[in-house]
Amino acid sequence: MKKKATRSKGAGRFGALLFLAVVYLTQSGYDSCTGDLLHDSGFDMWCGDQLCSWKVERGEANQAPTWHESDLGVALVGDDVLISQRTDIDDGIAPCVRFELVADIAEDASVTLQMDLFGDGEIDYERQLPTSSWAPLVYVVHMPLRYQGILFRLVKTGGGRAVLAQIRARTLSLDECGGATAIDDLPVPLGGSCYSRDQDDPFAPDDAACESGECAIARPAAFLPYSCSECQDDAGCGEGEVCGLAARVPPFLDPYRACVAAASRSMGELCMADGECATGICCQGWCASCCADDGRECAGGATCSALIDESGARAPDQCDAGQGHGQSGEACLRDDDCASGACAGGEPLRVCPVDGRLCDDDPDCPPDAVDEGEGREIGRCVVLGTSGGSCQ
Amino acid sequence: MAAGVAVLAALAALAAPAAAAPREADPAAFALVVGSNAGGEGQTELRFAESDARRMADVLRDLGGYGREHVQLVLHPTRAALFAALDLLTARAVSEAGAGRPPRIFFYYSGHARSSALNLGREELPLAELRQRLVGISGGLTVVVLDACQSGAFSRVKGAEPTADFSYNSLARLSATGVAVMASSSASELSQESDRLGASYFTHHLLVGLRGAGDSSGDGEVSLDEAYRYAYHRTLVATSATAVGAQHVSLEVDLKGRGEVAITYPAAADAQLELGARLEGEVLVERISARAVVAELHKVRGAPVRLALPAGGYRVMVRPWRADHLRQCDVEIGRGRVEPLASVDRCDEVALVDEAAKGDRPWYRPRLAAELAVGGIRPIEDDFNRTLEGFGYREGLQPFEDAHVSMSALAIYGPHLSLVGSFSTLGRGDYRRESEVRELTYTWQTWALGLGARGSLPLAGGAVTPFVEVRGGLALGKAAFTGPTGAEDGDVYWGWHLGASGGLAVRVARHVSLFAEATWVTAPVIDNLIGDTHDSGGAIFALGGRADIYTGNGP
User: Fold this and answer.
1) Which of A71, A133, A168 lies nearest to residue B481, judging by beta carbons?
2) Are B221 and B214 in contact, with CB atoms under 8 Å apart?
């Protein structure tokens, strides 16, 4: 049995749509002044010999003069080069994208422009750039009805010269999109938003949009709680499983409901139900040792509270968190939880402060900060504590 | 020492022969002297007609026995003003005739003319009317001297319509009983001015003759016939080497019952310069204070020549025959004295310094003028600009970015041809691109340094002159790129430019014109690494002014 969300009562449809747009805009790298979707379109930002805004995933990318020896482009060196840049944009902001660049591509080199929508590793758009001598190249793409985020990829093969400059991607309105190549509508992967496109009820969940066929509340406290999911409730899961939360998702996507082994989540990990936490308590979306919100207090007069990490990451509710009262063998998150000063026994618990999802490195997180040196938005992955730790 | 010099000077003054007592003015002598530089339609402005008239008036007053109040000097007159002057002349003459004193009338005109009329700017005075006025003054002697011009060309030619020569026609129309007419040129000839003399050839030599050089009889008077013969020969010799050609002075006399007619009385002048009998060669007498040539004569050995001159300091330059040098003496002529210059042995010797080769070939030293023009340029948009735009640059808006300034120097070889050297600004560029680091800028400026030739077609007496010009030469470009680091990277480019112009000049003063011109210039100078070359030329529209800075030495 599926749970359906109730319609939002507090805001009118227009206001809700406007708010929705503002939320996405402030969370994305989109520059509303210029419409630019990419950072450093002119390859002007170099961190030493490396591009600052583009990630060199394979091969080598070096500085190269363009029309003027001091106006630099990027030379893709070698016969297998991949550079990429992520753009946190969605179909609400960019129904159409204009991609342009100036390129000097030799006949014995092949450069391909790729777009990975949702950042799920699937290449949803691909176009080989023609051989050219500093010709401006323009591609206008009619984006699918639903997508979240674009990973722009430029792939070079062949040993010939390929120098790129002035790469820009800008949003266009549908009116400006006439005649553009269209990407077929895609089913939304797990973690993608699955709201109705019905203007009369834009916040209604839409199971049909999801590749999995399930649109479920995955973030109860969020303004937009629905994500394409594997399950709606425990009934949709196997024995020994509960319908919990998948918290390790690509940055463009959100945590989603998934069948997880019962009592498999450590303190500090995201959760949906008590049954998936090793502590047996899921408090305000985090596996915790107590829950001040619903009255599950600590024994022995200890205080139930949550610490806020200096990075801004929220820690779960704990008994006497950070007070050093934990005795040997008791569950802990950080060393200062323990009387011995040592919390050990598990891997570091790495989370994105923005929403608590699990991560391994900064690029795994949605942007939540601005790099002071480069002035661009970045995601952060911080160590919250020890996953499954116990006081020594 | 100074006192000694003064005593010697006084003794020298006493030793010098005294001039004859000044001749008293003839109460029945009246002169109307008219000068007009103004040109009519199709005629350029003359430069010396009015100054010639002033000098003629001075000679008549000083040497001709004409009272100061009896010489009317009328410069740049309108037709009405000239008629008024003629009316006054007629009234005075009639009054004298009525008192039993036959009037002596001298009419002099220097200016433009066509075959049937004198040109007074845009107005005309028909010769028939002038004849009627002058002949109508009966009972006396009327001497008419006409130094008439028609069009100013390369050497400000006078009477440019040879088939309808003024002098020929004027003689035919003006000669009558009691009238003598001397004209500056004969039929089919042109009359000319000389920059070197600062006068017309004819009037200059006529005046030198009237100052005494023409007194071939040595009687202290210069008769009409003597003046004519002197002016005829000297004008002919002086003009034979000019580009326009020889000029023959003409004289038509109908003075029945009369003997020699004296025009001037040099012996009665209050100061004279006597060139000694042994002195020979080409003699040039320059008044030092005015730096003006007052006499240029051909002195032969055997008889002295006296020139009646205003008292003052003079520089006498004598070039002996076949000599390769000049002798130069400074002479002070005191009032009431005859200053002798018996020989030039004690005069300074001055090398000729190529002067002989250039003296009568004025086209070697053309008039020079300077021009300044300001305006705007409509720059060319080409692949260079499009490449910049392709790389994300947008054209900036800088103040006066499209302003154009041009400075030129002109060597004017006549009314139709000038050589032009110019320095001008060409196109500027200012392109900018926003980046996340800082604004990137690329700017450039281009200049042109060139030589050209200009063809002109003076209209309405040079008041309006359409012109066309072609030119070419060097082009210099300077560009600067400011990149994301803020460092400026400058480049300098050299190339060539070609241009063509057309315009219209309007004369607003004698030596000043204003003009408007449109120019097309191509100057492919600035390039980029991709291989685009920017043409910094374009369409230029400018307004400017031109001023003569050297009048040259043309005839």
Assistant:
1) A71
2) no
User: Helix B201-208 crosses helix B224-240 at what angle (to 10 degrees)?
Assistant: 140
Which carries the bigger pLDDT value, residue A16 or residue A331?
Answer: A331
Distance in angstroms (rounded) separating the CA atoms of residues A338 and A333: 9
> How many pairs of residues across A and B have Cβ atoms under 8 Å apart?
66
Which of A67, A85, A105, A132 is the best substitution to test chain B (most B C-beta atoms within 10 A)?
A67
Maximum average pLDDT range among A178-182, A281-285, A366-370, B244-248: A281-285
Q: State the Cα–Cα distance between residues A236 and A230, nearest whole angstrom.
A: 8
The closest CB to that of A41, out of B392, B481, B484, belongs to: B392
State the ipTM, two decimals. Answer: 0.72
Of A45, A66, A168, the CB nearest to B436: A45
Q: Any chain B CB within 8 A of the CB of A161?
A: no
Contact A134 B440 (CB under 8 A): no
| Beta carbons of B387 and A67 less than 8 Å apart | yes
- Among residues A44, A21, A42, A41, the alpha carbon closest in space to that of A32 is found at A21
Contacts of A44 in chain B (CB under 8 A): 435-437, 440, 483-484
Closest residue on chain B to A136 (Cα): B390
Helix (H) or strand (E) holding B384: helix B383-390
Alpha-carbon gap, residue B75 to B329, rounded angstroms: 35
At A133-188, the pLDDT tens digits run: 998 999 999 999 899 999 999 999 999 999 999 888 988 888 888 878 889 888 99
Integer Cα distance of B520 and A324 in angstroms: 87
pLDDT one-digit tens code per residue, B269-297: 878 888 888 888 888 888 888 777 788 88
Range with the largest mean pLDDT of A268-277, B19-28, B34-43: A268-277
